[in-house]
Amino acid sequence: MRKPLVAGNWKMNGSRASVTDLLGGIRAGIGEIPKAEVAVCPPFPFLQMTEEALRGSSIAWGAQNLCTEPAGAFTGEVAGSMIREFGCTYVIVGHSERREYYGEDNQVVARKEAMARERGLVPILCVGETLAQREAGITSEVVADQLDAVLELSGVSAFGKTVIAYEPVWAIGTGLTATPEQAQEVHAFIRGRIAEQSADVAAGVRILYGGSMKPDNAADLMAQPDIDGGLIGGASLKPNDFLAICAAAHASC
C-alpha cells in the first residue's frame, strides 16, 4: 500500500516569527498522525530555520524550486546540492505558478525533475490543466504532454523516485475544488499513462491532489483509490488546518 504524503507548499509567505509559530504548532500536533508522511516546503530563506526546528521529528521538509544546472553563473538561482545541504528531502518542480508566471515549459520542468533526482532529492512533479483547457476537453492531452516530457528525457524509472501532484489550475486560490470524482478521474489517467510503460512503477508512484484541499474535503478526496495525499497551499499556513488534513491522510490508511 502506498503511504499517504501531505506536503505543505507555503509559497511566498512567512516571516521569522510566523515560521517559528507555524513549525512549532505542526511539530506539537504531529505525534497523533503516524501513518501518513508529512512534509513542509518553505521559501528558501527559511530552510535553515525549518531544519533546526524539525530535526529529530517525523516531519520532512523541502524546497519550492531548483535550477536546471548544477552550479555556475546563474544569478538568483539555487542549486539542488545547496538545497540538499539543508536536509531537504523534497523539492517541488513545475508548479503551475512557475509554469504560468516564469515561463517554465514541459522541457524545463523535465530537466528540473531530473536534476532533483541527480542531487538526491525527491521531486514533487506538478501537472494539471487550466480552466480553459478543461472546458475545451483537453485535460488528458495537457497532462499527458507534461508527463511525457519526463518520460522522454528520463524514462519511466524516473517515476520510481518521484511524487506527482495533480493540480487543477482552475481550483488553486479560487475557492473552487474538483469533486472527488473529477480528481480521481485525472489521477487514474496519470497512473494509467505511466502503466503503459511499467505497471510496477505505476502501482508504486504516489499521486497527490493539489487543488485547494482543506479539512472539510480532505477525507472525501483521499478516499479515492488513486489519490495518495495532498500538496497543500493556503491551509498549510494554519497549523490546525494542516494537521486536520494530515489526520485525514492518516485515517485513509
UniProtKB/TrEMBL annotation:
InterPro entries to which the protein is assigned, alphabetical: Aldolase_TIM, TIM_sf, TrioseP_Isoase_bac/euk, Triosephosphate_isomerase, Triosephosphate_isomerase_AS
Protein name: Triosephosphate isomerase
Molecular functions (GO terms): triose-phosphate isomerase activity
Domain of life: Bacteria
Pfam families: TIM
UniProt subcellular location: Cytoplasm
Active site: H95, E167
Purpose of the protein: Involved in the gluconeogenesis. Catalyzes stereospecifically the conversion of dihydroxyacetone phosphate (DHAP) to D-glyceraldehyde-3-phosphate (G3P).
Organism: Thioflavicoccus mobilis 8321
Pathway noted in the entry: Carbohydrate degradation; glycolysis; D-glyceraldehyde 3-phosphate from glycerone phosphate: step 1/1; Carbohydrate metabolism; erythritol degradation; Carbohydrate biosynthesis; gluconeogenesis
EC number annotated for this UniProt entry: 5.3.1.1
Catalytic activity: D-glyceraldehyde 3-phosphate = dihydroxyacetone phosphate
Quaternary data: Homodimer.
Family assignment from sequence similarity: Belongs to the triosephosphate isomerase family.
